Amino acid sequence: MFGLGQVAGALAPSYGVLFASRVVSALACAGFWAVGAAVAVSLVPMGARARAMAVMIGGLSIANIAGVPAGALLGQHAGWRAAFWAVAALSAIGLVGVVALVPATKPPTGADAPRLRAELAIYRDRQVWLALAATALNAAGIFCLFSYLAPLLTDAAGMDEGWVPTVLALFGLGALIGTAIGGRVADAHLFGTMYGGIGASAVVMAVLALTAHTVAAAVGMALLLGVTAFTTAPALNARMFNVAGAAPTLAGATTTAAFNLGNTVGPWLGGLVIAAGWGYPAVAWLGSGLAALAFGTTAVASRLHRGASRVVARSADADADAGAEALGAARRG
């Protein structure tokens, strides 16, 4: 469906048709990510969820290295329709890969098939909402800036337009590095990875706002933003699956929805800042502020998690003490 949406976009005779093709492609893309995430975590033990998500997100990182700048370059030299045809061809290759290589996944023997009504119960848990908020706010901050990175480089920093694809490739390279880092450390240090990645993203965007008129600094911050943003991504995905373990199917969909919510709201807010005449550096300040809100949300979730862990530990100690007392009484009897 995603590939067919690209074909429709390439052949679009009007803006209305092009707009509709974008909506169809977006629905298909979001559905793929939701199911793909659920499949990825189902193939590994619980302690390797972040690494499994890092492998999947690594595909997105490679796409940022090769696909985004290649699409920009192709659009500049062969027209935007050529970029749509290229994506359609890559989608066909991806479909062949899924059919040929992704193993079939089924519920464990004796387990019930997923039921939507039962899975919806996860939304009664405030930790699910905190995980959703952190993911959405972090994505909003990152893509608030990334959506306007090209005009920031050309208008604020004075970079020649021909160098923009190279900078986008550097962002993608940073994303690949960040994904590898996040996948290796997030399973053992989940909240630490979230704190470090989100906090570093806020700092990088603030520095970019201060140095936006210097080409070298802007390019360096673009690379670092790719690292920090994608270091966080595996941890955010794994966190949602941890708190929504009773609904593995819906957990993937919720994470994808949170990312897409941020990807929509962030650029919209950035557009409002630009329309107000505050300039592209102000967009970087806004992105930094949104990331700071995500950091605060993570801190609240971490505090609640520690509190719940202490309650469980005290309950386990009490059970152990009661068991020992009962055993002692039995021996005395």
SSE order in H/E notation?
HHHHHHHHHHHH
Largest sheet: none
Overall mean pLDDT stands at: 85
Q: How many DSSP-defined strands?
A: 0
Number of helices: 12
| CATH H-level superfamily title | MFS general substrate transporter like domains
Q: Portion of residues in helices?
A: over 70%
Please name the CATH architecture.
Up-down Bundle
Which CATH first-tier class would you pick? Mainly Alpha
- What proportion of the residues form beta strands (DSSP E)? under 5%
Shape: globular
The secondary-structure class comes to: mainly alpha
Low-pLDDT parts are: none
CATH fold assignment: Growth Hormone, Chain: A
Describe the structure.
With 333 residues, the protein is mostly helical. The chain has one domain (2-102, 125-321): Growth Hormone, Chain: A (Up-down Bundle), CATH 1.20.1250. 83% of the residues lie in helices and 0% in strands. It contains 12 helices and no strands. Helix 1 runs antiparallel to helix 2 (15-42). The chain is globular, with a radius of gyration of 23 Å. The termini are far apart. The mean pLDDT is 85.
